[in-house]
Amino acid sequence: MAEVELECAVYGEGTVFPVTIALDVKVSALQEAIVNEKKDVNERFKVDPAKLTLYLARKEGETTWLADDRSVKNFLQAGKSAEYERMRSSWKLNKKELFGANPSLGEKNIHVLVELPEAQQSAVPTKKQRLEWRSTRWGSHAYDPNSQYFLLEKEDVDESGLPPVRMMLYCRPSFHRQFEFLRDEVLNKGHLGWILGPPGTGKSTTAMAFASTLNRSEWMVTWIHVGKFMGWQCVRLIGDERKTRILDISDVDDVLMVDDDKKHHLVLVDGWTAADEFIKLTRKCVRWFLHSNGVKQRRRLAFVCSVATRGKFQEDMDILTRAREFRVWSWTLDEYLNAIKDDDVFESVTQRLDSPAVLPDEEMTREAMVESKYYYAGGSCRYMFHFHTATVATKLSDAVDSLNAAATVATSGQHSSSSINRLFGMFKRPHDVGAVSPVISQYAATLIAVRCGPEAIKKFMSTHRDSSNPALNGWMLEMVFFASLRNGGLALVDAAGNTVDMWGESVIVVGDGIPALYSAHPVWIKPEKWNQGGYDAIMVCKRTQHVRFVQVTSAHKHSFRIDHFYGWLKMLSESPQSFEVKTMEIIFVVEQDKLSTFNFSTVTGNGLLVPFGWPKGKETDLVRLVGIRGLYNLSH
């Protein structure tokens, strides 16, 4: 195996050095190579190699390496960043999640971040390191309320807590409304601003875009990005300077009290939650905001929250600060499709639109790529455009697994911070005030469904029945289907509500391959990847030589792509579990009140099922339609 030269950088010290190593070795070998490279010249490296902690110097879901430029020493001395993924000792360097078989390492880049064992107990920067402002020349941006896109250069977001990459932002309606809120309610009227919404909706990037457009002859901006596990990052925009530094709670008063009687001062606190770690910060900022007696220029304050709700807040504080809230809704499929109409935007995100292909390559348009990824990402723009599909699936699966009980999520009025960060979106009620917080995506919904009972699902749905996103009702119907199948069985009805079939309680296997098929009992399979126009579940009984495909939909019409069904049957015939299929069913399960009007929008692949007794052109006649009782009125 050919060798590569990896640039390694040490947290705390700020040193950078190369290590040459083969790609087909484990990370543990790289740990040893680093120790051998440095132990004779640096006492701190005379340690057990296994005690080194290594991080890939490329943020999860991104392709850009950490640049070895003039700012890297300050970055390393500021303490460990939580944005870089740990390299497991047992992994091989050529694993695709690390460097891959043919890595593109580039020039003047850092590839590995090294944390020495004695530095692992504290990632808090020293007082001297925190007090050092780093200054660069910087130009402002113009804002056009009619524009569809807004460009933030890498230099606009460096050391701000935002991804340090060039970003072309799509100006959906929420983008412009957030600009209006900050301008009218916060700057002009002097209200304390609270910008709320689930992670991944674009609150922070929009706030930074707004800050970059202010008239700097009148305004200075202080941006404070907070987090639990790393030093807080501060950006000061003043005149033609952009200044950055690290700070902690003891520095906040000094940062806020700026001796400049010629400029108004806007403070934006990004990443805020109701966590105890931020109570002192909130008090200090609000005190600064309120105590402006004798100050000639205006003080303005807004919190950009990483949560959808502030939790319990004192009314007297809201009255005193004249607080105003602005909610940023989760993304809709139409907004994603509009965003990628621009060729530059599409090219910048195309590598993350990598969910398994649901159509032949020649038919995988950019729209099809987005719709396929939407199954996983749902309302989270971050999941859609900034993470690979496999990463999104893992994050959502881990979030569900971390819950004490799926029923707790479904029935409680409050969501834990871990669940709301990953599992829930937020949409405006279409015919009422307030918001609904549905499951973030169809993939997340089905994950919950295979861990949760039907009663908990129904209680959960009753709080979200007014969702403004029509797709969500379909997701919830699918949740009911799988939860019922796992817990007591599923009753199927006709248009009049009469029970026409009963499918018994079953274990559900999740996966895209052919699992072990036991002759004694039927096996239900839930595909992991999305099949547009295909199937949501498959029942296989080897004893009776029976295959049943099921599509669950809440729509009045649905596409019917016969090639999906044929493809699975072909895969079965070529697997070690193969058997002669004597009975093959395709069943569409819809809401009871839609049975009489349901029809197929498009049909493709006619004739493929002839070997299974389905005549060409008669496929839609042989599909069986059955109902589930009303989505919110299932029988107990």
UniProtKB/TrEMBL annotation:
Alphabetic keyword roster: Secreted
Location of the protein in the cell: Host cell; Secreted
Main location, first listed in the record: host cell
Gene3D superfamilies in the record: P-loop containing nucleotide triphosphate hydrolases
InterPro entries reported in the protein's UniProt record: Crinkler_N, P-loop_NTPase
Stretches assigned to the Crinkler effector protein N-terminal domain: 4-115
CC annotations in GO: extracellular region; host cell
Domain of life according to the entry: Eukaryota
Protein name: Crinkler effector protein N-terminal domain-containing protein
UniProt organism field: Phytophthora citrophthora
